[in-house]
Design a protein that fits this description.
The complex is a heterodimer of chains A (180) and B (102).
Chain A lengths: L2 H22 L3 H21 L3 H25 L15 H21 L15 H13 L5 H22 L13
Chain B lengths: L3 H21 L3 H26 L5 H31 L13
Helix pairs in contact in B: 1-2, 2-3
Classes of the chains: A mainly alpha (180), B mainly alpha (102).
Chain lengths: 180, 102
Amino acid sequence: MTSMQVVFLVFGAVILLGALMVVISRNLIHAALWLILALAGVAALLVMLEAGFLAVVQVAVYIGAIAILIIFAVMLTRRVMRDSGPQANRNWWVAALAAALVFAGLALLLVQTPGLGTASLPSMGTDTEALVEDLGSALVDVNRYVVPFEIASVLLLAALIGAIVVARPPQAGGGEESQS
Amino acid sequence: MIPLSWYLILSAGMFCLGLYGALARRNAIAILMGIELMLNAVILNVVAFWRYLNPADIAGQVFAVIIFAVAASEAAVGLALIISIYRRRATVVAEEIDMMKW
């Protein structure tokens, strides 16, 4: 067992522990903090996969933005479900069964598919800097991925405006909206 | 070196934990956290496939970037909806949000 495998197993254990605590933790703030731990583990694995740019994006977008947004939302709404009452609904065992079945199916598929046990990394061909440069130019190249990129931009803009409109307090709209 | 299947098994486990969280939790914010876990498992899966099978083609990383954008917009809109519902109904329990059921 090489040192890389040991590092992978440590980060994998951290990710699975964090993910497990996210779904079973009673306190939502604790769940959000465990979520940050799991996301940081994924960022470390992205570094091991030599996708450094994606690891930085993972830290900036997931840990920096989404996790903080979730913590804000928990704090704004936490009065109602402090720590009382069940945290899982009545059919939680069906959900656990479904998740276990999906995992068993995926594991069976992975075992049966040939070639997935390959441990040989193909060489990158270029260095990491050229790779990031290639990613940047591929996203704005007309012949490559400019359409998905622009659609993602429009989606982000729509989500931004939609979030502002939806989360606005009912009375703050002034006189122009008679509804609410 | 690390076999590709290790990454795939790990992301499958992470996906299934997120699936359980999304299906079983009562709090709407906890459901969103489960969905974030699932999306992150998918990103890990895509990047592992890109690195092991075709690192010359940048398409794998483009996929991951698009998934990041979708996850960010989903979190923003979802949390805005939850806060709006909390203002009107004073609840974030998914079972009690039944205005559109009949």
